[in-house]
Amino acid sequence: MNPVIPLSEGAPNLFDGDAPDRVCRRPTRAELHAYPSPTAARGRALVYAGGGYLQLMHDKEGVEVAQWLNTLGLDAYVLVHRLPGQDDHPFDIALQDGRLALAHLATLPPLPLLHVGMSSGGHLAGVMACQRTDMDVAGAVIGYAPLNANHRDHKVPVGKPDFPPPEKQAFYDAWPIGIAGQPHGLPPCPVFLAYALHDPVVPVQHALNLIVAAQQRQLDVEAHVFAQAEHGFALRGLAGTHDQWPALAARWMATQLDDTRARQLP
User: So what's the pLDDT on residue 181?
Assistant: First the structure.
């Protein structure tokens, strides 16, 4: 059993289904599920599973990602966060739980930190990459995430209805990652993007908006867009050219970790 670290009050979380397809549909507290590297860790990753802020795809976009990161020499922690509007939680409850996770990780021996998230978890990874912390943040890896074009002023397609519950829409409105004109939401750390060109769930404009903002603000963004990918490919649906994305991301993460360690040298 991997350690489960409670971050807030509440009953332990329960999961529907069996591994490797467990889903958390009603998180009762914030938790970190720890997956330590079997070798001396070169860095640490905070992993955010997707699920549209309506549920959490715990195994597919959490545990399996953490285990992949372990093979790259990273200690990984999967965040189980509460959901906006559910059980009267405020719109930014996922952010609040993410900050609790950062506070816990800050108590551990220092290692460079990566934020890693898929789908709505990728949006949360972008949000968390914008937070101030004393830890050395090496970068953020974001896959097929609704970063910005769910904001009511930037929606794609134009006129798309607001998302229920209202708190979910309010979170997207408060944190559109990659819109230069917004007061926050441009990660200062390097960002790696993996997107599907023809994704009907998360249009590629989410990535393109961040790329344009990065060009305008001289930010560091590496982006890969795959024509054959479907939404939710994660580490399973790799029957296409996007089978290369884990290797591309692994190389990119290694570079960022090396650069972070180089900056730490006296």
Answer: 84
